[in-house]
Amino acid sequence: MELTPLQKARYEYNPKLPGMLRHGISEICVKEGAQTSSAADQEKIQALFPNTYGKKEITFEKGSNTSTPKKQVVGVILSGGQAPGGHNVVCGLYDALKATDKENVLYGFKGGPSGLLEDDYIIFDDAYIDQYRNTGGFDIIGSGRTKLETQEQFAVAAEVCKKHGITAIVIIGGDDSNTNAAVLAEYFAAQGTGVQVIGCPKTIDGDLKNEDIEASFGFDTATKTYSELIGNIERDANSAKKYWHFIKVMGRSASHVALECALETQPNICLISEEVSAKKMSLSQIADQIADSVSARAEKGMNFGVAIIPEGVVEFVPEFSALIAEINELLAGSKADAFNALSSWKEKYAFIEKGLSSEAMAVFAILPETIQQQLFLERDPHGNVQVSLIESEKLFSALVKDKLEQRKAAGTYHGKFNALHHFFGYEGRCAFPSNFDADYCYSLGYNAFMLIQYGYNGYLSKVSNLSKPAEEWVAGGMPITKMMNMERRHGEDKPVIKKALVELDGKPFQYFEAHRAQWAVETSYIYPGAIQYYGPASVCDITTRTLALEKGE
User: Fold this and answer.
1) Neighbours of 274 (CB within 10 A)
2) pLDDT tens by residue, 444-461
3) Does CATH number 3.40.50.460 belong to domain 219-425+506-550?
């Protein structure tokens, strides 16, 4: 494979570690903090995790290494969707493992958690690892979405670990994957296997975040990648002056990505799902809000603009959620077969009209026909509407168009409205990591091995103080159970890591809220440009606007 100059240069980049991890393995000691309790449902979580609950938070400091020397054979798994920097977690883990003892071994299980269950692996060496330093993607071993959650799976995992003499497993993933890591850690402890499990916080969505986890890795790079593209579109809009661009960005449950992109680019409109939910906004109200911006800008002769739409926003609209619930009920069981047997959309529409309540039908009727049909596409494994298939950017532009036509008929709008649509998702998941993510991820991997060496189990690799230069970052670990609560999943109460949604009283949203009225009418665009890897630290190593605002910087 021929390498580009950028690839060659990125391979040679030396990620920066937190100060206390730069002293050399033999000079890193542990400082224990207070005992922990779960985010909620303490009694229930403790009952489910008797062997791993309530452990102490720890930080690493300069001092004499007091861990017991032993050969470490570690397995690593990439789980869930891709996020920039995953390769550097593996590289940091490998480098710390080899720096401790050249005889230590790192297994990479292929294709996600299923690689562990199927005993499908590669043993890393220097030559293989060096091909992936500071690069994007998860192609070093591949990823997968198999969940580790049954006793049968745990037993198989234990046998595979025993076969290879594996002492620890590192699971790199999001909230669900790290929940699985906690459950596996508890099983290994209960069975006395001696195998440790360490998690690493990954997701571009940014919703694996709390008082301990300041940012999940990949969020920095992904939002900067999307913001470059949004900035390019803003500049194009301001040049052509004839299109409104509706841009959907990833973020199924939380709007962190949309908010960060708005802070970086200052579009005319950005919807925040959590605000839509809190204010119980209807589709009509949202469309009116966007139409107000279109109309106000048209009065100034600006028939162009940019609107950012979070991927999952429609689920936060109460009337739309109620409609989805009725559709799921309408097509439950054998009724789905009766619906699918109908040959024309006219017949299907009559079936829908007969089956929905008048309130749900009123919402359904205002949807564009393409969106109506998307609601009846292939169901998920549980027979429910796949909301992710709904092109919400096209939904809102169509609703806005209807609003503007009504205003034009009333003589209150005289502009032109031409909409273009975009979805930025996969474009940001495998980008070359920013310096921040390259450094952060390498530190998470290096730190994960320190947790293994000191015998911790059921812990998340934790690096904090991230808004400061890497030298000032603080490395340590926290029990995964600290982040957990009980939630209803598929009819059962299950322990899960609590998702972090955008906080409407948080500084990032408050900054956005204070400026959006101006952005809606004026052309206040910012053009961030491409991610910079080389040059002044003030350009190359900056954190997200979200993190800077949260830290008051």
Assistant:
1) 20
2) 999 999 999 999 999 999
3) yes
Contact 401, 417 (CB under 8 A): yes
pLDDT digits (tens, 9 = 90+) for 127-138: 999 999 999 999
- CA–CA distances in Å: residue 228 to residues 204, 233, 428, 500: 16, 9, 10, 25
Distance CA 253, CA 272 (A): 11
pLDDT of 358 over the 80 cut: yes
Q: Which two tokens stand for residue 529?
A: 């440009």
- Other C-beta atoms within 10 Å of 357: how many? 11
Verdict on whether the full-model pTM lies above 0.70 = yes
Instruction: Evaluate whether 534 touches 253 at the Cβ level (below 8 Å).
Output: no
| CA angle in degrees (0–180, nearest 5) for 270-533-500 | 40
- Contacts of 495-498 with CB under 8 Å at 24 or more apart are 495/41, 495/44, 495/45, 495/48, 495/49, 495/179, 495/182, 495/183, 496/175, 496/176, 496/179, 497/175, 497/176, 497/178, 497/179, 497/182, 497/208, 498/39, 498/40, 498/175, 498/210
Residue 335: the pLDDT is: 83
* Kind plus residue range of the DSSP H or E element containing 454: none
Kindly list the domain boundaries of the chain, sorted by start residue.
21-218+433-487, 219-425+506-550
In what helix (H) or strand (E) does residue 245 lie, and over which residues does it extend?
A: strand 244-249
Q: Which of 95, 175, 176, 205 is catalytic?
A: 205
Q: Which amino acid is at 249?
A: V
Q: Which of 271, 258, 272 is nearest to 230 (CA)?
A: 258
pLDDT, one tens digit per residue, over 17-67 is: 999 888 888 999 999 999 999 999 999 999 999 999 999 999 999 999 999
Give Cβ neighbours of residue 25 (< 8 Å, ≥ 6 apart). 65, 96, 99, 100, 450, 453
Q: Give dist(CA 375, CA 162) in Å, integer.
A: 47
Q: CA–CA separation, 447 vs 8, rounded Å?
A: 26
**DSSP secondary structure string, 254-321?**
--HHHHHHHHHH--SEE--HHHHHHTT--HHHHHHHHHHHHHHHHHTT---EEEEEETTGGGGSHHHH
Cα–Cα distance between 117 and 154 in angstroms, integer? 9
- Using alpha carbons only, what angle is made at residue 358 by residues 320 and 325, rounded to the nearest 5 degrees? 35
Answer whether CATH 3.20.20.70 is correct for domain 21-218+433-487: no
Q: Side-chain half-sphere of 341: how many Cα atoms within 13 Å?
A: 5
Tell me: pLDDT of 235 over 90: yes
Gyration radius of the chain over CA positions? 25
DSSP string, 187-216: HHHHTT---EEEEEEB-TT--S-SSS----
The sign of the torsion formed by the CA atoms of 256, 260, 265, 271 equals positive
The first and second tokens of residue 170, run together, are 């590192």
Strand 121-123 and strand 105-109: the pairing is: antiparallel
Our answer to whether residue 205 is catalytic in this structure is yes
